[in-house]
Amino acid sequence: MNIFNNKKIFTIELAELLASGLALQRSLRLLLDRSAPPDIYLQKILLSLQNGLPLSQAVEKQKEHYDPLLPFFLRSGETKGDILGALNEFNAYLEEKNGFFQAIKKQLFYPALVLCAAACSFFLMSRFMLPTLTSFFQDSQIAMPRALLLIIGFNAFFQKNLSLCLALLALCGYFIYQRREKLLPFLSDKLPLLNTYRRRSDLWSFFQDLAILTQNGLSLTDCLDLQESLFKSPKLQKQIGRLRFHLKDGLNISQALAKEKWLDPLFLEIIRNAEDSGKLSQAFQRIALLLKKELAAGLSRILAWLEPGLTLFLGALIALFLFLSFYPLLKILDSLG
């Protein structure tokens, strides 16, 4: 296994080696010696350094493997004479970005666990309880409730066509996995709640990256050129393209954002003030921070409704089977009374 498939590990280990006092090429050579099989991208970077290229240009030539923003961090560090500081800043940037989405995944763990528990409960009850209930109703000659008839019919169809159902499930899973990059924007357009969350998430990533790129000296049009290639959503790519067109047409960034109706007036006012003071990168960073807090608060509100809702669903499923279990006994007692 090649450990350098993870770009975060590469930059962390390179930063640690440089911090220990090793030269850049010596550090890269040590990292290359540790890779098995030899990392071809790292070999190309070393060759570029030996031919006189700076590290930022050497990494940029391998941009299909490394993070597209890494060369900009390195270029800033080369300008300041502090590559180690640039690597540490890049690692902190990745830690913040990845850590936020990891926190979201952790928050979604409980709802996913409840759904799995509901699926397992339904499977076990239909597998072991349904045959007993069916024979009990038949022996007691009591009419089955419609809910039980539906469950029995579904269970019989599933067991009769088990191979076909599993094949269809596997095919659907494979289709969703292959089309996930196109499917998520499609669902976002159809579901208002998901659309709001995805839009806020894209805006947070956009302004966080924009803050970093402008801090490294790129013009706004160059930043938008790069970001248009970074985002995978066709809708967002078109919006970024229109922003770039407005900037080339003579509008400033606040006017372009207002024309495209990207931001709330609060955020636009922050950018307008920053244009007057010449501190756009700090304004972009503040907006990214506010959007991140809004995302976290919105997700907390969704989970506050989702978790008890799923718990109630699981409880209702168990209550249904309990009712069906006691229904024949209640009917017998009613007839005796």
Q: Which descriptors apply to this entry?
A:
83% helix; single chain; disordered N terminus; 337 residues; Receptor-associated Protein; mainly alpha
Task: Write up what this structure looks like.
The chain has 337 residues and is mostly helical. The chain folds into 2 domains: 3-80, no CATH class; 108-337, Receptor-associated Protein. It contains 16 helices and no strands. It has helices at residues 7-19, 24-34, 40-50, 55-60, 70-80, 83-107, 109-140, 146-160, 162-178, 180-190, 192-215, 220-230, 234-248, 253-260, 265-277, 280-336. Helix 10 crosses helix 11 (192-215) and helix 15 runs antiparallel to helix 16 (280-336). Residues 1-5 have low confidence and may be disordered.
Q: Nearest-angstrom radius of gyration?
A: 29 Å
Shape: elongated
CATH topology name of the largest domain, in short, is Receptor-associated Protein
- For the record, what CATH class of the largest domain applies? Mainly Alpha
Please estimate the helix content: over 70%
* Largest sheet report: none
CATH architecture label of the largest domain: Up-down Bundle
End-to-end Cα distance, whole Å, is 73 Å
CATH homologous superfamily identity of the largest domain: Type II secretion system (T2SS), domain F
